[in-house]
Amino acid sequence: MTLFDLRLQEIHNRLSKKELSVTDLVGEAFAKISERDERVGAYLTLNEEGARAEAARLDNKLAGGEARGLLFGLPVGIKDNMVTEGLRTTCASQFLSNYDPIYDATAVAKLKQAEAVTIGKLNMDEFAMGGSNENSSFHPVRNPWDLNRVPGGSSGGSAAAVAAGEAYFTLGSDTGGSIRQPASYCGVVGLKPTYGLVSRYGLVAFASSLDQIGPITKNVEDSAYVLQAIAGHDHKDSTSANVDVPDYLAALTGDIKGLRIAVPKEYLEGVDPQVKASVMEALKVLEGMGAVWEEVSLPHTEYAVAAYYLLASSEASSNLSRFDGVRYGVRSDHAGNLLDLYLESRSQGFGPEVKRRIMLGTYALSSGYYDAYYLKAQKVRTLIKRDFDQTFEKYDVIIGPTAPTTAFQLGSQVDDPLTMYLNDILTIPVSLAGVPAISVPCGFADGLPVGLQIIGKAFDESSVLRVAHAFEAQTDHHKQRPAL
Amino acid sequence: MSIQVKDVEHVAKLARLNLTDEEREMFTEQLNAILQYAEKLNELDTEGVEPTTHVLHISNVMREDVVHESLPQEKVFRNAPDEEDGQFKVPAVLE
Predict the structure, then answer these.
(1) How many angstroms separate the Cα of A423 from the Cα of each of A171, A223, A271?
(2) Which among A21, A32, A79, A121 is annotated as catalytic?
(3) Counting one residue from A and one from B, how many pairs have CB atoms under 8 Å apart?
(4) How far is CA B28 from CA A178, A315, A357, B10, B31, in A?
(5) Which sign, positive or negative, has the C-alpha torsion A465, A459, A125, A298?
(6) Bridge partners for A216 per DSSP
(7) Is B60 near chain A, with CB under 8 Å?
(8) CB-CB: which of A306, A363, A369 is closest to B37?
(9) Residue in chain A nearest B87 by alpha carbon
């Protein structure tokens, strides 16, 4: 057993008993990175000097017996769309290849308050647009379970780093599935909290009505542990929810007797047979623990992808107008006037998928098309949300696969954006409804991990985590590690 | 509704993007495919359905009108491609 295999709470306990030092933990993370990351490609920027200095400082503090934060000494990797003061933040875009943030995102500040150690910034699809991590402007990430396959996206680096043992836990962000889908492909645990539970301040905006930060971890307990540290109201984010943050660890009782589970028939249609078999097996496990499940219908599921791509792209086209080469980012050096400066800087700085979504969003918002596309999609979003509201009147959680397939081959879908978009068909409806969901490993198909998606009511992360934890305790899928 | 190359050119102008000939062709084809898929939404009758702009029902978030700490100027210019006398500098707006 390596340090990496310990649960975060166990590490915390060993640190307080001085059986372990922060320097040991940080050292192991960097040893794994130097051994593996050339093959995996999870990191864009390393904070080695800073992390080692911070480890020494925390070890000194430990020797003095001082009070220790919840995540004391734990090495964390952060998706590169959360700003980190003094540590380059690129969103995996050429546009921000030189960007040196002047403040910390709130989620990052909260990790620092809890005394976690930032070891680096993680690769992603450019501006979080993509589901395979092939849209990174720097280099793709490879799936630790099969280096010829994608890790999923857009938080591909965040999921692959945990799977490869290159971070004890990571933060990702999820707009239409960008935490859950890569977690599913990489065999790790990914939680998208309720919209508004974790502050978006300092998360570079993609689609502001959907973006949400969440943890990617090796197990459910760690997920609850990290969520505890990052959740909560923030006056710097006007869409931050002013709700009480419960004790998430206390929710992990292992007891799901009488739990009412809804299984949408739409979530099993067109799904790979091996993925479906793993999900049915998981339902049996839950049934064995006293839960009951019934098939239900979420009739608007098939409209979610179309509505999502119109809404998310529209919001993105507006959000990304800030990248104009004036205040930060890479400015084109051959522009004669201001308009050329905008045009040249943006055309050189953005990659093809980002341009595609800006174009789609600008079109959907443009005069004459707003009602037909943008407004229509917002109305369909209401219908999708109603599907969830009605289901949650009778059931505690909704369960299905996280993704219709396991990880696909690198390069196999790059020329077909629409097929790529359809990989998110099971995560997007949840994002549109704004409710929380977790992906936990529930089996393997031809050696590749399969993810189970557990969806809860708004702000009921406790139930989501409780069910995921109870399931995990009966299985050992999450304990499998890729042979790298 | 089918998109022509000239529509793509118009949208690119609105979005402040210069496209290459190749990109113009590619986006025309791909936006047509995506929008054709989006036509699916018209199967649904949304007469009288309220649009959802946000899932949380928060409006008008206010705070006390007191001065908070703000970023110092030297930090704000840390990433500026060009600056002069405490201002961001850009090329001439008019020729």
Answers:
(1) 22, 24, 10
(2) A79
(3) 167
(4) 27, 21, 13, 12, 5
(5) positive
(6) A170, A190
(7) no
(8) A306
(9) A327
Closest CB to B49: pick one of A302, A360, A379.
A379
For tokens 């006390």, name the residue.
Answer: B64
User: What's the pLDDT tens digit per position in B22-68?
Assistant: 999 999 999 999 999 999 999 999 999 999 999 988 788 888 999 99
Residues A335, A338, A342, A343, CA torsion sign: negative
The H or E element that residue A113 is part of is helix A106-113
pLDDT digits (tens, 9 = 90+) for A356-408: 999 999 999 998 999 999 999 999 999 999 999 999 999 999 999 999 999 99
Pairing label, strands B83-84, B87-88: antiparallel
Tell whether B8 is within 8 A of chain A (Cβ).
yes
Beta strands per DSSP E along A146-269 = 169-174, 189-192, 212-217, 260-264
Residue A158 annotated to the active site: no
Strands A75-79 and A117-122 come out as parallel
The residue to which tokens 């097929």 are assigned: A419
Q: What is the DSSP letter of B73?
A: H
Pull the structure tokens for residue A167: 């971070």
Q: What is the pLDDT of residue A227?
A: 98
Which ipTM was obtained for this model? 0.95
Beta strands in A150-270 (DSSP E): 169-174, 189-192, 212-217, 260-264
Rounded Cα distance between B76 and A244, Å, is: 34
Tell me the per-residue pLDDT of A68-110, one tens digit each, with 9 for 90 and over. Answer: 899 999 999 999 999 999 999 999 999 999 999 999 999 999 9
With left for phi above 0 and alpha for psi between -120 and 50, is residue A129 left, alpha or beta? beta
Write out pLDDT tens, residues A323-358: 999 999 999 988 889 999 999 999 999 999 999 999
- Whether the CB of A302 is below 8 Å from some CB of chain B: the reply is yes
Q: Residues A313-333, buried b or exposed e (16+ Cβ, 10 A)?
A: bbbbbbbbeebbbbbbbbbbe
Per the listing, tokens 């174009």 go with A359
Chain A residues in contact with B26 (beta carbon < 8 A): 352
Task: Give the pLDDT of residue B1.
Answer: 56
Q: Is B28 on the interface with A (CB under 8 A)?
A: no
**pLDDT confidence of A1, banded at 50, 70, 90?**
low
User: Residue ranges of the alpha helices (H) in chain B?
Assistant: 5-14, 21-38, 73-76
**Closest CB to B91 among A306, A335, A421:** A335
Cα distance between residue A439 and residue A454, in whole Å: 7
